[in-house]
Amino acid sequence: MILSITIAIVTFAVLGIIFGSLLGYTSIRFKVKTDPIVEELDAILPQTQCGQCGYPGCKPYAQAIANGDDINKCPPGGDAVMRQLAERMGVEPKGLETEEKPKLVAFIREDECIGCTKCIQACPVDAILGATRQMHTVITDECTGCELCVAPCPTDCIDMNPIALTTQNWEWDLNRIPTKTTTEL
Amino acid sequence: MSDYFLLFIGTVLVNNFVLVKFLGLCPFMGVSNKIETAVGMSFATTFVLTLTAAVSYIVNKYILLPLDLVYLQTLGFILVIAVVVQFTEMVMHKTSPTLYRLLGIFLPLITTNCAILGLALLNINENHDFVESIIYGFSAGVGFSLVLVVFSSMRERLAASDIPLPFKGASIAMVTAGLMSLAFMGFTGLIK
Question: Which of A94, A169, B24, B86 has the most crowded CB, counting CB atoms within 10 A?
Answer without folding.
Answer: B24
